[in-house]
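thought: user wants a sequence for this fold. calling inverse folding tool.
action: design(structure=
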């Protein structure tokens, strides 16, 4: 019989705040973390807005001499891990080390480092490239640094499945514990790619909102005036444990992970499959994994990026899964406030689902002032909502047609 897996810590860092409590407070208040880009001069770019983390001082988590070894995505991952581990009260002892792991994703990794070192190369030749260029850049070094910091010598991995990456990391970590290959996994994802090439690349695809004059109102999932997503940065990290391990150390259990699904669209490199086929199947697979019917789901944290095609197709997929009940299931997109963290989105939103279950309140979809005709579900518009939340489903869909869903359940003894 597979083991039960519980969440004991949540760490969040994004444009809405630094730390789980301030992020959650701002999300419930409907506060947007989106503003004009300050990381670089974006005045010549079509899209000039992003969900930047403000007042983030990596020296609060990293020694000064270590900073040059880390891209910004690693720095924010370490910060989020610190918040998660502190909340969980976890201390990995030498006896626990081999059964404690880290599984932390990123869609892109150190884009900031790649651009910086390439500029140095062009200006001064190969001798100017930092010896720390590669370890500061590659995706798996967030998990690497976290494992080193906490002494986690068990499973160590990373996914790079675009905007599904950190949902896949959490789901894979859940399965690792469930099948008894570890007792503890620090998992999730991080992204920090608000850079000229990344913003310029997405803008060239016409994927980004150009509502530059109203940054706070630019990310508007399911709204008739949505015109693209807003890029964000940050991290979402969870501490997952086997139920036995959590009980042994008398940890506070925040929620239980009960379902995980993966699917592929096999359709198009950037566009979702018609009628949301991949999204539909991944939600059904997650419910099947949890051995529950769609009728139990009380909340869906949507992928909901604020793109014209994506929001409409996810809406169609939700209708296919829930049938006649679809209009009664609250669905919200917190990307309306955080922007889209790309590979970090699933980790952030998984943490949000856990907090929603804990406080029995749903974060809103802000800026939903004029719902599009094709988007006609209950998107928890504008204001947070107190309600009973027993099961919460989190959706993540990525380029290449890669999809992931996670199902969380309110903690109950039996």
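)
observation: tool returned 414 residues.
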């Amino acid at each position: 019989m597979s083991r039960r897996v519980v969440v004991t810590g949540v760490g969040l860092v994004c444009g809405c705040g630094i730390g789980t409590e301030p992020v959650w407070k701002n999300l419930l208040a409907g506060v947007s973390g989106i503003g004009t880009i300050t990381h670089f001069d974006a005045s010549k770019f079509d899209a000039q807005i992003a969900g930047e983390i403000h007042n983030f001082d990596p020296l609060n988590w990293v020694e000064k001499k270590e900073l040059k070894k880390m891209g910004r995505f690693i720095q924010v991952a370490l910060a989020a891990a610190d918040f998660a581990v502190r909340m969980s009260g976890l201390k990995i002892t030498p006896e626990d080390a081999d059964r404690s792991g880290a599984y932390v994703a990123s869609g892109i990794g150190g884009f900031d480092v790649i651009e910086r070192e390439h500029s140095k190369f062009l200006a001064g030749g190969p001798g100017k490239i930092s010896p720390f260029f590669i370890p500061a850049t590659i995706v798996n070094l967030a998990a690497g640094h976290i494992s080193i910091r906490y002494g986690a010598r068990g499973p160590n991995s990373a996914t790079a499945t675009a905007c599904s990456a950190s949902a896949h990391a959490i789901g894979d970590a859940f399965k690792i514990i469930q099948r008894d290959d570890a007792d503890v996994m620090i998992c999730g994802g991080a992204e920090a790619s608000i850079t000229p090439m990344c913003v310029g690349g997405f803008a060239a695809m016409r994927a980004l909102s150009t509502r530059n004059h109203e940054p706070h109102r630019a990310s508007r999932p399911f709204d008739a005036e949505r015109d693209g997503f807003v890029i964000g940065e940050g991290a979402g990290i969870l501490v997952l444990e086997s139920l036995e391990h959590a009980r042994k150390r008398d940890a506070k259990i925040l929620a239980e992970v009960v379902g995980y699904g993966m699917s592929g669209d096999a359709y198009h490199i950037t566009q979702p499959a018609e009628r949301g086929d991949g999204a539909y199947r991944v939600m059904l697979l997650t419910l099947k994994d949890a051995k529950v019917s769609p009728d139990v789901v009380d909340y869906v944290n949507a992928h909901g990026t604020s793109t014209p095609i994506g929001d409409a197709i996810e809406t169609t997929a939700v209708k296919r899964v829930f049938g006649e009940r679809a209009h009664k299931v609250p669905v919200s997109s917190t990307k309306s406030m955080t922007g889209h963290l790309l590979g970090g989105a699933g980790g952030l939103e998984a943490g949000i689902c856990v907090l929603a279950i804990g406080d029995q309140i749903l974060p809103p979809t802000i800026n939903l002032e004029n719902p599009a005709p094709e988007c006609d579900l209950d998107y928890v518009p504008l204001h947070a909502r107190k309600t009973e939340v027993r099961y919460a489903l989190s959706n993540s869909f990525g380029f290449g047609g890669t999809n992931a869903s996670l199902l969380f359940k309110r903690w109950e003894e039996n």
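thought: summarizing for user.
answer: Here is the designed sequence. The longest strand covers residues 5-14.
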